[in-house]
Every structure is written in structure tokens, then in C-alpha cells.
Amino acid sequence: MNMPSPSTGTHHGRVPGFLPMSLADGLDQFRVTGTMAVRAMLRELQNAREHVVLYSADDDALHLVTRIEGLEAQDFRLTMAGSEADIEALMEAGPLTLVGMTGAVKIQLTVSALSLRDDGHNSQLIAAIPDHGWRIQRRDAFRVTPPEGDGATVVVRMPQQKEARGRLHDLSAGGLCFYWQASQGALQVGQTLPHSRIERVRAPALPCDLKIIRIGAPDGNGEQLVSCRFEALPEAIARRVQVYVMDVERRVRAVRND
């Protein structure tokens, strides 16, 4: 197994998060070879119960958010999710790219083809386990900062059922960070913020429960950065969060490439 150097980045200065990396991003330095090694990476994703994304190799706008449901001798199984049209398009698209993340590790595989298994009770997508993949480890790589035009804020419920909000600083599949004016009320590390939500301009709110894991020192304006992890996100909301992160990353990448 070729172990990547954790200190190296890409020509953009950051490893992309949910979007696939390319050889131009320095991908091959993270290469892992051997079916057993790839199986171990797939098992890592399965055990973490994290979402993975399947992309068309030719068009990353065509993608499917799903989960790894099981491993067999030569292949692995994915949950049926998304529209029938998207699934059919991916099955016809030829080579696909699978991207998944567990903590600070990003896993990327090339899937030669996708097929459907239906036993009359349960439908699953099937793909062969490839003989190589990529394992990218960067602690700061997988958070995105929404553009100002999104108007993204975090709304939290305070005592006496009052609500207060702060600007969203960054977001990942596992949590978020937002600005907080100390004058709105005292927050504490370890505190749970139930019935919170992420609000954006012209988009449905994303309801979530948050647990505070870090609070920064106030700046000159009395603002603090509050870091939180998501607590027991429902499946449908977790998928929407991941899709939003992917959308932000795609827009940021488009600006970089202009």
C-alpha cells in the first residue's frame, strides 16, 4: 500500500471534498493498490454508515447519494436511492467515480459498471470491487464556506423558546461552524442545541440538532466562532445537507476555474 503524505495538497491548495479529485489535483500520490486494501476502505465506509456519492465520470452533475449496504467476495452493494431516471442514467454512463468520507479521510474509487439486483423484496445496486483506489487524509479538507449570496444562517432555540441566529461560517456532512454574538446569550461546550436549523435564501430550511464542541474567543466585535457536530440527523436531512455541501463546492470550484 502506498501511504500518502498528509502534508501535501492540490494545485488549488485544498483537497476537494465531496467532488472527485483528478490526477491534476495530485490524486495518484494517495493511491492504494490491491483488492483486499480496497475492500478494507469500503468496509470502513460501511461501518461508519456515512453517505457515499456515485458520479458519472463524464459529468459530475449526474450523481447519486447512497450508502454501502454490504460486501461480498467480488462486489459490494449500495442502497437504492434517488430517482429511477438518475439511477438508469448512471447505469448507462459507463465508468463511475465513488466518493465517500469518514472523519478526516476521503475515499475515492473508480467503478467500472453498476447493475441492479432485485430479489422481489429488496432492490440494491451492485458494483465490482476494483483493484485500486485512493485514500486521502486531510484534517481540514472537507468543510465548505457558503457564498455570501446564500444568506446562510444557523438558527438556535434559546431558553423561554426564544430564537437567535448567527451567520454560517462553514459546513460539512458531520457538522458546522457559525458566528455568535455573545450578547444573544451564553453558550457552553458540550451543550446540545435541539430544534436548530440552517436557513438559506430561496431554499428550504435544514432542521438539525447540534452539539457544541468548541467555542472561540470573542473578536473585537464580540463575535465568537461556535463549532458543532450534528446529532442523530434523520436520513432525509443528512442527504440534503450533503447535497448542499456538494452544491457549494461545485460553485466554488467553478469560480476558481473561471
UniProtKB/TrEMBL annotation:
Highest taxon above the source species: Bacteria
Record domain Type III secretion system flagellar brake protein YcgR PilZN: where: 30-132
Domain PilZ: from-to ranges: 137-245
GO molecular function: cyclic-di-GMP binding
InterPro entries: PilZ_domain, T3SS_YcgR_PilZN
Pfam assignment, any one: PilZ
This protein's name: Flagellar brake protein
Organism: Lautropia dentalis
